[in-house]
């Protein structure tokens, strides 16, 4: 449900087209400040507070980020 939103937000933040949920944020050129921006945008758009420690994990894919948003939305 949130995968398309993650792809859109990552594309906006990173300035590259993110087309697959299997793409890794850090492999796409993402850095910690960009991740903080992503967290703020998710909170603003969806009212979901994401756990930073999950998002700063090495190898974070868009699918994993979407699952974290979904879990936060249910909490």
From TrEMBL:
InterPro entries per record: ACP-like_sf (IPR036736), PP-bd_ACP (IPR009081)
Domain annotation Carrier: ranges: 1-73
Superkingdom of this protein's organism: Bacteria
Protein name: Acyl carrier protein
Lineage of the organism: Bacteria, Bacillati, Actinomycetota, Actinomycetes, Streptosporangiales
């Amino acid at each position: 449900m949130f995968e398309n939103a993650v792809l859109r937000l990552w594309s906006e933040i990173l300035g590259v087209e993110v087309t697959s949920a299997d793409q890794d944020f850090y492999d796409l050129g993402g850095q910690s400040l960009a991740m903080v921006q992503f967290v703020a945008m998710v909170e603003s758009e969806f009212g979901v507070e994401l756990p930073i420690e999950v998002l700063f994990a090495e190898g974070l894919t868009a699918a994993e980020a979407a699952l974290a948003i979904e879990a936060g939305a249910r909490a």
